[in-house]
Amino acid sequence: MSAVYDCGEPRTRADGLRAAAAAVRSGRLVVLPTDTVYGIGTDAFDGVAVRGLLQAKHRGPDMPVGVLVGSWSTVDGLALGVSRQARMLIEAFWPGDLSIVLPHAPSLNWDLGTTRGTVMLRMPLHPVALELLREVGPMAVSSANVSGQPPAATAQQALDQLGDSVAVYLDGGPSGEPVPSTIVDLTGEQPVLLREGAVSAEAVSEVLGVEVGPRS
């Protein structure tokens, strides 16, 4: 049976964060608010839990899961070198709506799907998400919906789609317009825009000093 916690109330928010942290540490799934849409997440280093996340979404490993972090410094332990371009984007847009794809550190024992040696990282701008991430560490997080269905902009929409496959739902209120994060791939010689979302391509290009667009 899933538990839903109203994070608009201080007492239930604290209870919900404790329950969510316990769920993540035991390899279960949680739904949490982010600054884009609601996410479904679990321990990034628990391969069984990540496969459970993909199963809950009815999605295969060919669409790997990104990782949310609670601080800038966490990235240094997850990526195989953090380039100057990556640091420029982190300083400009984190916490916020920009996801960055980097080569992942080969020593990490995780299975996020078919990543081909890369990892997509983001630090969200939402107090509930940040508090949970700082408590449990990096989380594998995807949009809280069944694959092919609209992303959830409320905890109830997530519950309607994912039901009891999720142990804990943290209700942070409506997320607003369900606009996804922008994704920039920094694994090659030139930055590539994989998806334009909440952060415009122009804003990314301005920070990096080069025009950033889709792979030609």
From TrEMBL:
InterPro entries the UniProt entry points to: DHBP_synth_RibB-like_a/b_dom, Sua5-like_dom, TC-AMP_synthase_SUA5
EC number: 2.7.7.87
Gene3D superfamilies: DHBP synthase
Oxidoreductase is among the record's keywords: no
Cellular compartments per GO CC: cytoplasm
SUPFAM superfamilies: YrdC/RibB (SSF55821)
Locations listed in the record: Cytoplasm
Membrane-traversing stretches: none
Protein name as it appears in the record: L-threonylcarbamoyladenylate synthase
Protein's organism: Saccharomonospora marina XMU15
Taxonomic lineage of the native organism: Bacteria, Bacillati, Actinomycetota, Actinomycetes, Pseudonocardiales
